[in-house]
Design brief:
The chain is an all-alpha fold. It contains five helices and no strands. The longest helix has 50 residues.
């Protein structure tokens, strides 16, 4: 065999060994703490849904849902790193969607209260002007 072929085969073997280590590193069991993060993300998404995030923060809410699906897929492939990352991001997006929804809901209530106040002031002014 020529030196080029030997080096090629050696490189190929090293590449295969490195790939197998990478797959081993990725295929780690999901720890109970990591599972808890996933559960926390699901709970946060449910809280966002109760806060009407689908109405007020749809894009952010959908991103949280997609990340939960990503985390669930990573769990099936025993990719602990991706599972943890997607779970944490899902929770962050769900919390953000909830906060946006709560803020927008309060803004609507404030606008309605402001309108009611304006109507009351107009009624007071009308009553002042009447004999």
């Amino acid at each position: 065999m020529t030196k080029k072929i030997k080096f090629f085969l050696l490189d190929l073997c090293l590449l295969l060994v490195a790939a197998s280590f990478l797959e081993f590193a990725r295929a780690q069991e999901i720890s109970p703490a990591q599972k808890e993060e996933f559960i926390d993300a699901k709970v946060a998404l449910e809280a966002a849904q109760r806060a009407n995030a689908e109405k007020y923060a749809l894009d952010t809410f959908k991103q949280a849902q997609e990340l939960l699906v990503t985390a669930d897929n990573a769990r099936q492939f025993k990719d602990a790193v991706k599972f943890t990352q997607a779970s944490r991001l899902a929770r962050a997006y769900a919390d953000l969607a909830k906060a946006i929804a709560e803020l927008k809901s309060e803004e609507e209530k404030l606008a309605a209260a402001h309108e009611e106040l304006q109507r009351a002031k107009a009624e007071i002014d009308r009553l002042k002007k009447s004999p």
